[in-house]
Amino acid sequence: MIQSSLDLFDPHPQRLARHTLLLPGFALPELEALLDALRPVLRAAPFRHMHTPGGLRMAVALTNCGALGWVSDENGYRYTPIDPVSAKPWPALPPLLVDLATRAAAQAGFDGFVADACLVNHYLPGTRLSLHQDRDEQDYGQPIVSISLGLPAIFLFGGLQRSERPRHIPLSHGDVLVWGGEDRLRFHGVLPIKPGVHPRMGERRINLTLRKAG
Ligand code: MD3
Ligand code: FE
């Protein structure tokens, strides 16, 4: 019947693990407003390639908005209130993003999540993000909300030990992922982005992660 085929376009949330929820297409209704909010952020704080403490140039280009921004250099990984490139505070976190993250987190059972930092990652075809944990935030009790835009990606969803073989999770334009609780410190990464052109976003993938860093 017609109703059931229409349901294919309104996919259900998928629980990937006990405290990890994939919300397919959750950002799509607000996509243009989200891009409008992102434009001045990227103008004030353009994407840049940071270096690992070991001196390696990261394949992913990144920037931040919010009270705190994640940086990596020869001195290590940390959150800072000042953008080292502009020597000014990071651009403000657009309220639309904070609100979207609060609503997504609530769907996953994390009530009252208020992000103070948004790390924005930029991937070209071929760019990958190797397996890592996010451990630079103050309170691991706070969830992280991720918004995927543009070219699709295969997300690597690992375990609490690096040695655990990660699951491969496809992420599409507009998908939102929430993880917290016992899943907060899982190893994760992104396989090399396949060549392609996204009709709205062009030849790139952008991922926003909303965090309570401080
Ligand atoms: C599930 N970003 O910025 S976001 C990062 O797509 C980062 O750019 C990736 O890892 C990206 O630190 C992945 C989705 C994600 C991130 C971490 C997780 C999902 C997660 C940790 C545990 C479980
Ligand atoms: Fe991460």
UniProtKB/TrEMBL annotation:
<keyword id="KW-0408">Iron</keyword>
<dbReference type="GO" id="GO:0035516">
    <property type="term" value="F:broad specificity oxidative DNA demethylase activity"/>
</dbReference>
<dbReference type="InterPro" id="IPR037151">
    <property type="entry name" value="AlkB-like_sf"/>
</dbReference>
<dbReference type="InterPro" id="IPR004574">
    <property type="entry name" value="Alkb"/>
</dbReference>
<dbReference type="Pfam" id="PF13532">
    <property type="entry name" value="2OG-FeII_Oxy_2"/>
</dbReference>
<protein>
    <submittedName>
        <fullName>DNA oxidative demethylase AlkB</fullName>
        <ecNumber>1.14.11.33</ecNumber>
    </submittedName>
</protein>
<dbReference type="InterPro" id="IPR027450">
    <property type="entry name" value="AlkB-like"/>
</dbReference>
<keyword id="KW-0223">Dioxygenase</keyword>
<feature type="domain" description="Fe2OG dioxygenase">
    <location>
        <begin position="114"/>
        <end position="214"/>
    </location>
</feature>
<keyword id="KW-0560">Oxidoreductase</keyword>
<keyword id="KW-0479">Metal-binding</keyword>
<dbReference type="InterPro" id="IPR005123">
    <property type="entry name" value="Oxoglu/Fe-dep_dioxygenase_dom"/>
</dbReference>
